[in-house]
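Dear Dr. H.,

I hope your travels went smoothly. While you were away I took the liberty of generating a structure for the chain from your last submission, since the lab meeting agenda had it listed for discussion. I wanted you to have the full record in hand beforehand rather than looking at slides cold. The sequence, exactly as received, is reproduced here:
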Amino acid sequence: MPSVGDILHVDLSRRSTVRRPVDGGIVGRVLLGRGLNSLTLLEKVSAQVGPLDPENPLLFTCGLLTGTQAPSAARVHVSARSPLTGLLGSSSVGGKVGPALRANGVQSVMVWGRARAPVYLLIAGGRAELRDASHLWGLEGPETVARLREELEDDGLVMFLIGPAGEHLLPLACIVTQRGHAAGRTGMGAVMGSKNLKAIVVKGAKEAAETSEEARAAVRRYLAKIKAAPNYADKAAHGTSSAVNLVNEMGMLASYNYERPRFKEAAAIDGTSMDPFVERLRACQRCPVHCKAELQLTSGPYAGLQAERPDFEPIVSWGSKSGLSDPEAIIYLHNLCDRFGIDSVSAGNAVAFAMELWEKGIVTAADTGGLELTWGDVDVMEALIRQMAAGEGFGELLGRGVREAARVIGRGAERYAYHVKGLELTAFDPRGASAAGLGYAVSNRGGDFTSVYARHEFSLTPEQAKALYGDERAADRTSPVGKAAMVKRSIVICAVLDAIGLCKIPALTLVNEFDLSSEAELVSAVAGLPVTPEGLFEIGERIMDIERLFNIRFGAATADDSLPEVFVREPLGEGPAAGNTVELETMIGEFYEAMGWSAEGVPTEDRLRELGLEEFVARG
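The corresponding predicted structure, in token form, is as follows:
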């Protein structure tokens, strides 16, 4: 068995902590990270457990390679049953907390129960202790960090924490780190708040131990591939933030709540426009891609603001989707979400949804408490964020997510609530990218790109597409041909990357091999788990089926693998993809078949046995 840390079981109801070694058989079965989390949820969470019940565990698990010498291996996967979707809650987060946990000998923190009063968990010197957090409850993120660092006399502390949104159990609440990273999407902050857990604080981060020459050679080869990528310089300077212009040119940039596929002020909000504000680029531990940036705004209404540069999806959510063309205002709104612990992507979507309802006359000042929700009004957008954090007003309703807000509002609001399985869609209009559209529909956590990452439809030549997917048309992003196989490959590889703790920007945007050959080499050499690319792929398939079974347990059905009708019925009206819709029905059937699932999207008995999941054949 490879050298991994222990599982730290934290029972908040009993106020106890227990460390247990990882079961060696589990690592070969589902790796760690997302794989261990998903298997634990399927085994431990019955159909009677609600998302905010004490019996819903909140799981923080490092990937198999997290904290090792492997480049860009700093990820922690956070999972629970989601209060936003009711299905799988799942989020990957980078930064320094994962390596710090591994330095303390901790592979996973599994939180059970509910504390009687607010607490935080301190992990230091390999020991764990629950401490009173009553004095921290109600504080915003930066204030919490400052208070804990002062209290514990350590400016190097790293942590996961919630802000007021999590304390108010807002379904859009996320979990943030001490700076610049968040476990966003699916409402994991509300689960943490329901447990009265304010923070997980970790001391004692250190570099990975020395490894073999074989491991060092594998690391060097992977680093060389990252740095040799044609777009390395751009990603190392801008991360994903510089994708706004490109996607706009492709005619698939979600604008005005998907009313339009282009935003005329796209250049103004692209990440490159924020270069004058950059004070310092930052990276996760041992990552050569410095995709995070610390900003300083020096003039205008936000003069003096020290902030983090938003990534591509938050820029779109607060920018083009909401009709806002001021990059400094976008930076401010995104960082306000981080202060309060609100998922910036979903919150921006919810505000854009509300602005379209206002434009269409579906909501009025009588609904909004007097707020006039005109496109691009930054003062109104800020007011709604503050209402979300406080759990009050029209913002509180939006903070439940667009699906629930539309249900409450009625009057045809559902037509403009763009989500899959209750999770708001991200930055692409799927009519301009068929694999992205299929990925939105079939992702186990809902309308999402990050856990699917079907970049092949943007990067393959027709010859490569024919070799990989059997048809040159798979290289055409508007064509449905070959996209089921492409999404299967992508979605399974994403499950593997989340289980081993590697970031997708270096692995998929830069190295762009999509065959797990480099990842298998790293796992074998660095983690000491001999594995082939094919073996890793099978583990990814296993994780996907485990998650599918979990969602089925909580009522997910074929109808949930769908897209809002507008993307299927109404063609794009302009741009390179004009006239296109998502031909979803055919792609869905092909995807189910490729996954070995029934025509209803259920893993078959034969498939479960083939993947070594026999114990779930009868249980489901």
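Two observations you may find useful: The first strand starts at residue 6 and ends at 11. The two ends are 29 Å apart (CA to CA).

With kind regards,
E. W.
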